[in-house]
């Protein structure tokens, strides 16, 4: 089974993915894959260079330069996304060729990047804005305003919720969310339960 996981920053995707990895899932982190490709994939770099002359210098992407172009121009951003989404999807497909029994694709752009087509189930992880701000501040030591700006630049929870098969809302404690994830795994039939985990389903938890 291939699960597609999406949602904004600080919503709890990594927390869910760790639990999926505990269940034996192959985890495909598309952000990490994209950054690996920028270092290794000459075809990707030449596509970017062809569309954005001057942003690749001596085989290295000048990220700030590219960022300045695409954030000022929505058409340029969609052109870049078309190039990068195709490269990431190809790499994800290559990694899935070994046909793992369970895999999770983690991508904020899961829905627009064509990755959802590879998934049996898509899951939106969402959480109240204030909780996300607080979690990002604690995790990264950033200011309230910076965390809020990052969150507000991303699609809203409702967009993820409307387009995914399942929604896991992370609005209580970390332990409550982890339990919710395990209950979800049981529901979709991927739970590899063992004696130490069984107690989590006791009523008083
Ligand atoms: P990003 O996309 O920015 O990596 P994410 O969606 O992967 O974010 P996580 O890394 O899972 O989010 O969660 C953000 C931080 O908040 C982590 O440090 C995590 O341990 C913590 N966290 C997650 N859920 C809760 C919760 N319910 N209560 C308290 N802390 C939480």
Structural domain count: 1
Q: What is the radius of gyration computed over CA atoms, rounded to a whole number of angstroms?
A: 19 Å
What's the number of extended β-strand segments? 7
Termini separation (Å)? 29 Å
Strand order of the largest sheet: 2-5-1-6-7
Main CATH class: Alpha Beta
Which stretches of 5+ consecutive residues score pLDDT under 50?
A: none
User: Which CATH architecture would you pick?
Assistant: 3-Layer(aba) Sandwich
Beta fraction = 5-15%
Profile the largest sheet. 5 strands, parallel
Helix content: 40-55%
| Structure annotation, total helices | 10
Shape: globular
Feature tags:
single chain; about 200 residues; alpha/beta; 5-stranded parallel sheet; binds adenosine-5'-triphosphate
Quick synopsis:
The chain has 205 residues and is of the alpha/beta class. It has one domain: Rossmann fold (3-Layer(aba) Sandwich), CATH 3.40.50.300. Helices cover 53% and strands 13% of the residues.
Describe this structure in words.
Helix content is 53%, strand content 13%. It is of the alpha/beta class and 205 residues long. It has one domain (10-204): Rossmann fold (3-Layer(aba) Sandwich). The strands form two sheets. Strands 2-5-1-6-7 form a five-stranded parallel sheet, with helices on both faces. Helix 1 crosses helix 9, helix 2 (30-40) crosses helix 5 (74-95) and helix 3 (42-51) runs antiparallel to helix 5 (74-95). The longest helix has 22 residues, at 74-95. The model has no long low-confidence stretch (mean pLDDT 93). Adenosine-5'-triphosphate (ATP) binds next to helix 1, helix 6 and helix 9.
